[in-house]
Structures are given as C-alpha cells and as structure tokens.
Design a protein that fits this description.
41% of the residues lie in helices and 19% in strands. It has seven helices and eight strands; from the N terminus they run ααβαβαβαβαββββα.
Length: 196
C-alpha cells in the first residue's frame, strides 16, 4: 500500500495541492493611461470570491523587458521568468491594437518558453468589437507555447462596458461570463498540473 501511496499520493494531499493553484492575471498593456489595471482588478475581485485558487495580478509594466534580442536593460527578465514559472494558469487581459495584441504582450510572451508550457489560460479582451481579433491572435500564440486556452471568452465593448473609453463600468452579465471562463480554467489548470 505504501508503494501506491508514494506513487499516487492520497486524496487529501491531492486536494491540498490543487487548493494551492496559482493563477496569474496578466495585464497585457503597458502604455500610459491604460485601462487594463481596472479590468484586471475587476477579474481578480470576481475570482477571489470563488476560493478555488490563489489569484495574482501580474503587470508586464513592472518588469524591465526591452524588445527581445535588442540591447537594453533586461534586468527584469529573470524575475519575469520566475513569476511566470510559479503560476499554474493565467487569465490574459487583452486589449486590441490594430486587430491584434499589444507589442508589449507579444514581447513578454516571446521572452519565455518552458515557463508557459503545459498550463491553461483564459482570455478577457476589450476593444471596439470586444477585442475579439486580438483574442484570436493570442490563441494562436498560446498554442505554440503549449498553453491550452479555454473556450469561454469574456469580450468587453469599449461602447457598452466603458464610459468615455476610460472608466470601466462592465455590464452585469460580464460577471457571469468571467465565472464561466474560470469554471473552465480551473479544471484545465488542475489537469495540466499533473503532467508538469
């Protein structure tokens, strides 16, 4: 019996391990005047009520990441690697810039490889059409990084979920959309945890 216990652990040990899931809420914009911190704080407030994981906002702007391969102060690269490696899953807060994701988010994704592998992600996007085109571009990038993105995708409209394009005031239905996305993200994060 002890052989099987060592191999598979106990149900209690597994539950404790899963309760410690860490989900990073990645803010995908670094520009001045951005609204992603408002959206990220809203997602975290909804997520924290669930009690199914530890949720943390990860702001790309807090890390010094010059364009990959170019000279510059890359002193934040090691901290970026450590932060992403410590997460079991992600919620990407994605804004649409010219029908795609921001250069800052693409650069931050490209900085790492194995730290992303075999993890799950949800996407919360915003833009004139809910950021849908940016979300679809991000899905292709995540696939290459071996990140399994979930289907439910809260899409926020600049016209109905923001006041004057700057003050975030989501429609009530969006809260349920975030919970549905997290309902998919948590089981996938647990499943992928077992193969890392």
């Amino acid at each position: 019996m002890s052989f099987l216990k060592n191999l598979f652990g106990t149900k209690k040990e597994e539950e404790q391990q899963m309760a410690q899931l860490k989900i990073g809420i990645v803010l995908g914009s670094t520009r001045e005047g951005r609204v992603s911190p408002q959206v990220g704080a809203w997602v975290k407030a909804i997520a924290d009520k669930r009690g199914d994981a530890q949720y943390e906002i990860i702001d790309i702007a807090d890390f010094k990441l010059p364009l990959l391969g170019e000279a510059g102060d890359a002193s934040g690269a090691a901290a970026w690697s450590e932060k992403i490696a410590s997460c079991d899953g992600f919620v990407f807060i994605v804004q649409e810039y010219n029908h795609s994701i921001t250069g800052a988010l693409k650069n931050a994704l490209d900085y790492l490889r194995v730290e992303w592998n075999n993890k799950a992600a949800g996407i919360v996007s915003y833009g004139s059409v809910g950021g849908a085109r940016a979300a679809e571009h991000l899905r292709g990038i995540l696939g290459e990084l071996l990140v399994a993105d979930v289907r439910v995708h809260p899409a926020l409209s600049l016209f109905t979920d923001f006041e004057n394009g700057t003050e975030f005031k989501p429609k009530e239905v969006q809260d349920e959309s975030v919970n549905q996305m997290l309902d998919q993200l948590i089981p996938w994060s647990k499943a992928l945890f077992t193969i890392r």
